[in-house]
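User: structure tokens for this one?
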Amino acid sequence: MEAFGQFVPLLLIFVIMYFLLIRPQQKKMKDHQSMVGALRRGDQIVTQGGLIGKVSKVKDDNEVEVELAEGIKVRVVKSTIAQVVSKTEPAAES
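Assistant:
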């Protein structure tokens, strides 16, 4: 019984670490993945490097083409997109 009493503080520390650090980080990653997965043409984005541009083409699962200025397009890895500034509305079906 004494040995179990010595592990209680260790278990308590692990539980606190899980709820304060691990769980919020997993939620943040999940939110980022859903944001990146919902990217579409016309969305205005900010990259982790601070570049602001408009998505001109979603190339594949891992890459988008971003127009930084008129006629200047760069390929960007989706995971480096920090935030979506403004979303475009999905096209209405007629």
